[in-house]
Design goal:
2 domains; D-Maltodextrin-Binding Protein, domain 2; 20 helices; three-stranded antiparallel β-sheet; 12% strand; alpha/beta
């Protein structure tokens, strides 16, 4: 299974948010959005022709050239040219190409970090009837919508769930925690069964940790933005989220010195840790980490995230596609995007690389439905939210990560950390004015 971690991409997004902010604030969303709606005409069923230039980040797109063979067969007069760019450089190169008017026809985006591109000066509106919005996980579709205009079409999906050592849980006689207050006792029980620490919590204290605390804030009943687009981070729910995360460390069930992101799986298979809050890609990688076929099936289980006061909410992430405003072949570009969004294509992508479908019906295919460890991720994907589609979210999330560290290490109270995050976010604004 693929590892869609895009630490390089997301860090670059935080550092280059100003580029996106300038694009968003300089184009006049109100007037241009009306134009986008008016020009989002339906795409017909005639064969695609001409050349379609596609840019994508290395990873899940590596196999797409082979996966779309049926599209080429059905459209013999079309040429699809793929350019794969390293993750750490992708958004920077894409932004530069767009600014220079030399961008591709079709570009890959990431729902959790695509906000700065969702504008009619950059992307064309998704044509009417191209796809059925209700066929996708709601939050993934919503991540590409601004002011009722859709700019991207979801491709693959992932979210976080609980991955734990089932052998240690059985030894301890405990079941996966269903609620927040069951989490630390569960982790302690796993330690009692032989684990070094109950939870392998990533200690990057960066944007990814910030995404975690946003998830916990939702579980506690909070929000990140108000209905009017104002930051709502200095709230009891945010303080509860920070305190909940800190409880793993103050209870001794997680360690502020490790593991790091790259150490997470070796720690897990060796028993240094017994639980991860992570994405579905790890399921296909643990046998390799353990250097033993079948290790995962006999040692691992998954479960939805423990529920806070407002339930078991996670975030939606993955990949998506958009057609640039400057595309010279929009008809063929949208036909390619439509093909990639078909359930059969997304199942083929899963078989080739492990990318989990963004189209819900594709999960019924035996290739996916027959993988019981994916059940928790499917359950969780049905209860997810999109991160704020604003240009400064990546910077705010990074600050959230740093404040999480302070609370976890006891150098800052949760309430003061929430206040600090709010002040920082307000100083940045949203980049959508």
């Amino acid at each position: 299974m693929s590892n869609p971690s895009r630490r390089g991409v997301l860090r670059l997004t935080a550092g280059t948010a100003l580029l996106g902010t300038l694009a968003l604030t300089g184009c006049g969303r109100g007037d241009d959005t009306t134009t986008a709606k008016a020009t989002a005409k339906p795409i017909g069923d005639s064969p695609a022709t001409g050349t379609v230039k596609v840019w994508a980040a290395q990873g899940d797109a590596d196999v797409l050239d082979k996966v779309i063979k049926p599209f080429r067969t059905a459209n013999p007069d079309v040429t699809v040219e793929f350019t794969l760019i390293p993750n750490s450089e992708y958004y920077t190169k894409l932004q530069s190409a767009i600014a220079a008017g030399k961008g591709p026809d079709v570009a890959q985006f990431f729902p959790e970090s695509q906000a700065q591109f969702l504008d009619p000066s950059i992307l064309r509106a998704v044509p009417d009837g191209l796809v059925d919005p209700d066929s996708f996980f709601n939050s993934l579709w919503d991540a590409g919508v601004v002011e009722d205009v859709a700019y991207t079409v979801p491709w693959y999906a992932y979210t976080y769930a609980l991955v734990y050592r089932s052998d240690l849980a059985e030894k301890a006689g405990v079941k996966a925690p269903a609620k927040w207050d069951e989490m630390v006792p569960f982790l302690k029980a796993l330690q009692g069964a032989g684990a070094g620490h109950g939870l392998g919590a990533d200690i990057g204290w960066d944007i990814f940790n910030g995404q975690d605390v946003a998830m916990y804030a939702w579980q506690a009943g909070g929000s990140l933005l108000s209905g009017s687009g104002k930051w709502t981070l200095d709230t009891p729910a945010m303080a509860e989220a920070l305190q909940y995360n800190a409880s793993f460390f103050t209870s001794g069930t997680a360690d502020t010195s490790g593991p790091t992101f790259l150490d997470a799986q070796p720690y897990f298979v060796s028993g240094k840790t017994a639980t991860m809050i992570t994405g579905p890609w790890v399921i296909g990688q643990l046998d390799a980490a353990a250097k033993k076929d079948g290790w995962t099936a006999s040692h691992v289980a998954t479960a939805p995230l423990p529920a806070g006061a407002s339930g078991s909410v996670s975030f939606s992430a993955g990949g998506s596609w958009g057609v640039l405003t400057g595309s010279g072949n929009t008809d063929a570009s949208w036909k390619l995007v439509r093909h990639i969004s078909k359930p059969s294509t997304q199942v083929s992508q899963y078989k080739a690389y492990g990318s989990l479908p963004a189209v819900m019906s594709a999960w019924d295919d035996p290739a996916i439905a027959g993988q019981p460890l994916l059940d928790a991720f499917l359950t969780q994907l049905k209860n997810t939210r999109a991160f704020p589609q604003v240009g400064t979210w990546q910077q705010v999330a990074t600050r959230l990560g740093k404040e999480m560290e302070a609370v976890a290490k006891g150098t800052q109270t949760a309430a003061k950390a929430a206040s600090s995050i709010q002040s920082y976010a307000e100083s940045l604004g949203t980049g959508t004015g």
